[in-house]
Amino acid sequence: MKLVLCKNYEELSKKASDIVATIIRDNPNAKLGLATGSTPIGLYQNLVKEYNDGKLDFKNVKTVNLDEYVGIDAKNTQSYRYFMDFNLFDRVNIDKNNTNVPFAQGNLEESVKDYDKLLEDFGQRDVQVMGIGANGHIAFNEPDTKLNMHTSIVDLTEETIIANSRFFDSKEDVPKKAISMGLADAFNCKTLVVLASGLSKHDAVEKLLNTTKIDTQFPLSFITLHPNCYLIVDEEAYKG
Ligand code: PGA
Q1: Catalytic position from the list 142, 185, 234, 236
Q2: How far is Cα 104 from Cα 14, in angstroms, rounded to an integer?
Q3: 3-state DSSP call for residue 164?
Q4: Is the Cβ atom of 38 under 6 angstroms away from ligand 1?
Q5: Which of 23, 35, 176, 223 has the fewest CB atoms found within 10 Å of its own CB?
Q6: 67 in catalytic set
Q7: 79 Cα–ligand 1 center, Å
Q8: Which residue, 185, 45, 31, is CA-closest to 102?
Q9: 97 CA to centre of ligand 1 in angstroms
Q10: Is 120 a catalytic residue?
Q11: Among 44, 68, 83, 132, which is best to mutate for testing ligand 1, by the most ligand atoms less than 8 A from CB?
């Protein structure tokens, strides 16, 4: 794992977007694994800027996303499909048919099977971007006695529900379940880019940097197993 220390969120976003933009420039058919949440927004803004400046072409880029809330319509502003369209897909020349976010309504068992099949067909991504939960979750793989390898319906922890309530009118409005990629699929990428910004992530970053154990109760520890992982952190997340 390569630790990349940044002064602030702007620098973190630039480091992350440089990695992704280079991958797209090197391979116009690049396959990207993307993430939602507040952390990658700056990265997406930089990619949109590069596209607007004529330095990036998304015409043949394909994407998969890590997760989606259960029971929220894709048109709802809180859905992760909406987030991706709003922050990136609607702002660049990507073919929406080449973008994939789990469908988390109706028959969830079918959705899980469909997403696993899609991931299998999609194959290894050139890069996977992910944020981290304050509790060390990655995608929506929450601390537990065991972790899923493949796509699953997961229960969000109380901590995650509280953390994500900042995006909703109230805590009660936060979905209690999500469909999430499992760890084996989340790590099926040539380059893994893990982002941590702000004080709320400090404890998780400190724990990761001081642990010698892989622990299902701390899913973030599993990123140390990836052969080409960048942990990009800003000063607040690093120093507290
Ligand atoms: P955040 O969420 O980027 O909004 O902090 C990250 C996560 O929960 O994985």
Answers
A1: 142
A2: 32
A3: helix
A4: yes
A5: 176
A6: yes
A7: 14
A8: 185
A9: 26
A10: no
A11: 132
Q: Is 181 in contact with 97 (CB distance < 8 Å)?
A: no
Mean pLDDT taken over the chain = 97
- Does residue 42's CB lie within 6 angstroms of at least one atom of ligand 1? no
| Per-residue pLDDT tens digits for 132-173 | 999 999 999 999 999 999 999 999 999 999 999 999 999 999
The pLDDT tens digits for 46-82 are 999 999 999 999 999 999 999 999 999 999 999 999 9
What sign for the dihedral angle of Cα 114, 120, 123, 128?
Answer: positive
Integer CA distances (angstroms), 85 to 76, 101, 219, in order: 12, 10, 28
Bridge-based pairing state of the strands 229-234 and 189-196: parallel
DSSP 105: S
Amino acid present at 231: L
Distance CA 147, CA 82 (A): 27
